[in-house]
Amino acid sequence: MTVDYIIPLADSRASLAVAGGKGASLARLAAAGLPVPDGFHITTAAYQQFVWENNLQSHILGTLIEVDLATPATLETASQQIKELFIHSPIPAEVAGAIAKAYDELPEEYPAVAVRSSATAEDLPDLSFAGQQESFLNIEGVDEVLGAVKRCWASLWTARAIGYRARNQIDSRDLSLAVVVQRMVPADAAGVMFTANPVTGQRDQAVINAAWGLGEAIVAGEVTPDVLMVEKHSGRILEREVSDKKIMTGRMKDGTVTLPVPDKLRRIPVLDDRKAAELVELGVKIEELYGAPTDIEWTLVDGKFSIVQARPITALPKETLPAPSEWPMPDPKGRYLRTSIIDFMPDPLSPLFATMGLRALNAGFVRLSRYIGGSDAAFLGESFFTINGYAYLKANYSAGEWWWMLSRMLPSFPRMLRDGIPHWRDEARPAYLKTLERWRSVPLFDLAPEEILSAVDDVLEAAVDLIGSLMAGTMGASAGSEGLFTNIYNKLAMRPEDPPAPTFLMGYDSVPIQAEKSLYDLAMWCRERQELVAYLLGTPTEQLIGQLEKEQPPLGIGESDWYEWQSRFKLHLEKFGHIIYDLDFSKPLPLNDPTPMLESCKMYLRGEGTDPHERQRRLAERRQMAVQDLRARLKGLRGKIVRKALSWAQTLAEVREDGIADIGLGYPLLRRMLLELGERFFRAGAVEQANDIFWLTEEEVRLAVKKLKHHEPQESRVDEIRERKMKWQAEKRVTPPAQLPPSKTYMGFNIESFMAFDEGSQVGGSLKGMGASPGRVTATACVLHGPQDFDKMQAGGVLVAPITTPAWTPLFAMASAIVTDVGGPLSHGSIVAREYGIPAVLGTGVATRRIQSGQVVTVDGDRGMVILPNGDKSNE
User: Fold this and answer.
1) How many other C-beta atoms are found inside a 10 Å radius of the C-beta of residue 570?
2) Residue 641 needs a FRET pair 20 to 30 A away by CA distance; which of 148, 548, 826, 855 works?
3) CATH assignment of the domain containing 312
4) What gap in Å lies between CA 341 and CA 659, rounded to an integer?
5) Distance between CA 803 and CA 823 in Å, rounded?
6) What is the C-alpha to C-alpha distance for residues 236 and 345, in angstroms, rounded to an integer?
7) Mapped to the 3 state alphabet, what secondary structure does 304-345 carry?
């Protein structure tokens, strides 16, 4: 049987096993007629013959036994020992003869060639192995080629190659190396092209790096190349960066040399628009050949391109779209604010909530107008809009709409203030619970799709009516009452030695505080069981969540302790797991992701944090003492005014957090119903997974339900959903303006103290915000973008978040200060921060973008400032 040590470059036998990854790729390109420099393959059989005749395999494997990845020096030692073996071993005569013959048959006498390594574990779908083996350029003569081939074989065992394979668990016993010998292209310019954007993942863009001379300077990172971003289908240049290219790689005898770029070439483009479009056209052909985005090495000589390598791009990010830069308003003459209930929608909305959720909220506003003003205000049915995916509240009204509000709403204010809490407590909340009870008793699998959708409508309407009652009776009134009491107290009652106004409104046993006490009590129960404590503290939270559902207790934990722990934690979830992180029902609940609860429990187990029972008791005592003193010393009209304002503020403060926590009472059921529909859509082929229902619009959901009802085939929404997810990611990268158009006033009133700061106003080494809780702390920042980051919170860190809702409360026990993008002095974050006695600066607009986790920042709650690292401290 004849062994082929040499095969032509375009030979169909040039597989991965025979010609290595680089060789197989070049053979594929050459066979397709693409401009690849001519040459030949030295197959893996040649390497294997070399190793076998010189008895090298046992020596190689014996040397590798001593390698320890934790000790880099062992990699270098092993590599050097193997290299010495290769250098002092002769190439078998029949192999050397075959190589010499193939080289002599190339055109010209003693042509310059590139001798390039091509490993069998190279350019794989998930691992590129880029730079692991070596190449040698501008090699002339048979003896020089043979020497370069041996050096290529030895490069299979460089320290970096040995370490790379070991880290990626690639078996070294069956490795072989092929070598590609190609005619050297005396390139005028060279570079790399990606047929997809390697940063954003966009498949409709190609990115080109280009420099003068050979491509080695780019690959080695020795030169800053020109960078071009090109639209693939048209060849249009989207972006161009022309760099100052100081050096280039040139040819010298038996190798390459670094040379200075001539002054006249340093700052001019390597590729003009026409040549860039021509290169991208080649790239598209190669991408079609591979069926995937590719990483291509190219050269240019005498105006003609050559392709010297191509491989699928590994680790290409998920495709994203450009972040929006314009904020087109639905009504160009309108006015839109991100305030009020919008605070609970910090992210771009899911398509389903943006259509179904906002539609329900708009309809709820109309029903609310009936309760407030005695008649439907149809214009309030267009209160909520989305702009670049973010929710906005319309704030401009016609003369007739203003007349309705002044004639109907304004006279109702006294009744709203009087009846707001009873309406929430005695009507909206019971109606919500009654709706939930009705649908909880019906097994979802027994319902037809249209019945599930009807149930979704019922639950959503009840939830929205609860939100309306909160906005009319507690949330807005709470803000107003606290502000009114603070002003009256400061002007009519407060003495220098008296406590600040918030003291009178703290220490109530709200639902979020009850949730914290429940976790503390659970931790105290655990602390009496040392094996359980050791397991909980020593196990990653993600693993703990999975273990919660398992009946078998972990090794070393008694069955009774484990079952009791499971029971107690599940009871906590049942009672408090509905408290929302976000009004958008597509977002998981604590019930779905109990990470913050477990992290808080661990904190208490480590002996950190404060006893919430004791803290609440202390705050309640301070409140009661302050009230007693105030009532005892204030008499007459002044005393009556202060007591009336205090009574109103306290009544609302006691129930405000409970009302917000109640919003999510129906969310577990609502999500279950929607996910059941999503599962049926999945089985019908409309979506890739049940959770994708949240990426459909309400109209698409209703159409899909209709088709299920009539047993009609479903239209696949897979491509649309992928596009929407990319769009959502792009929208998430921008900070939505607090007002459109931007303004510091509304109807002549300064509203800066109630709105988040805009991104454009945050410059320099500090961030402006609203001082919501006094004090000053310097500590390490923990930037949490949502529940998925809760495990990153560290005890004593500054909690930096888009916004905090009652579901975030367990993290306050770990934080030394609070900073948010959204929120004001009367939002949840400020109330809870004051309860905990930690400084808070809210409504900075950009904190989660300007601050990085691990940075040390100073939070000044008195001045409403966050001082960034190396920030301007002149005003401190």
Assistant:
1) 14
2) 826
3) 3.30.470.20
4) 13
5) 7
6) 39
7) EEEEEEEEECCCCCCCCCCCCCCCCCCCCCCCEECCHHHHHC
- Into how many domains does the chain fold? 5
Q: H or E element: which one contains 783? A: strand 776-783
User: Is the domain of 568 the same as that of 578?
Assistant: yes
Q: What are phi and psi of 6, to 5 degrees?
A: -130, 135
pTM (global) more than 0.85: no
CA gyration radius for the chain? Answer: 35
Q: Note whether 276 and 167 are within 8 A (CB).
A: no
CATH number for the domain including 56? 3.30.1490.20
Q: Do 124 and 208 have their domain in common?
A: no
Question: What are the tens digits of pLDDT across the range 453-496?
Answer: 999 999 999 999 998 888 776 666 666 777 788 889 888 988 98
Strand 840-842 and strand 817-820: the pairing is parallel
Please provide the DSSP assignment of 706-768 as one string.
HHHHTTPPPPP-HHHHHHHHHHHHHHHTSPPPSEES--SEETTEE-GGGSPPPGGG--SSEEE
Please answer whether residues 26 and 163 qualify as being in contact, where contact means their C-beta atoms are separated by less than 8 angstroms.
Answer: no
Give which of 76, 68, 13 is closest to 43, Cα–Cα. 13
CA distances from 792 to 540, 599, 795, 818 (A): 12, 9, 10, 15
pLDDT confidence of residue 748: 57
- Residue-level pLDDT at 65: 87
- Find out whether 616 and 512 touch, Cβ atoms under 8 Å: no
Q: In what order do the strands lie in the sheet with 135-139?
A: 6-8, 39-42, 177-183, 113-119, 135-139
Q: Could you tell me the two tokens for 150?
A: 């041996």
Cα torsion 400, 406, 411, 415: sign: positive
Q: Given this model, what pLDDT does residue 477 score? A: 64
Find residue 393's DSSP bridge partners. Answer: 337, 384
What is residue 89's DSSP assignment? S
Classified as helix, coil or strand, 580 is coil
Taking phi first (over 0 means left), then psi (-120 to 50 degrees means alpha), and beta for anything else, what does residue 841 get? Answer: beta
Residue 606 has, within 13 A of its CA and on its CB side, a CA count of 15
Within-domain flag for 135? yes
Contact at 8 Å (CB) between 229 and 280? no
In terms of domains, do 443 and 511 share one?
no
Query: Distance of CA 181 to CAs 8, 104, 108, 146, 149, Å?
Result: 10, 12, 15, 11, 9
Q: How far apart are CA 327 and CA 859, in angstroms?
A: 31
State which residues form the domain around 862.
743-867
Instruction: List, as one string, the DSSP characters of 270-295.
Output: SS-HHHHHHHHHHHHHHHHHHTS-EE
Task: Specify whether the CB–CB gap between 801 and 827 falls below 8 A.
Answer: no
Is the domain of 80 the same as that of 127?
A: yes
> Of 722, 718, 719, 702, nearest to 710 (Cα)?
702
**Dist CA 770 CA 822 (whole Å):** 10
Tell the residue number behind the tokens 């304002």, with chain if given.
Answer: 645
CA 536 – CA 530 distance, rounded (Å)? 10
Closest of 860, 670, 635 to residue 767, by C-alpha = 860
| Low pLDDT (below 70) residues in the chain | 1-2, 121-133, 217, 219-222, 254-255, 319, 417, 473-479, 744-764, 824-828, 870-876
First to last CA, the chain: 86
Residue with tokens 């917000």: 660
Give the whole-angstrom CA distance, residue 200 versus residue 287.
18
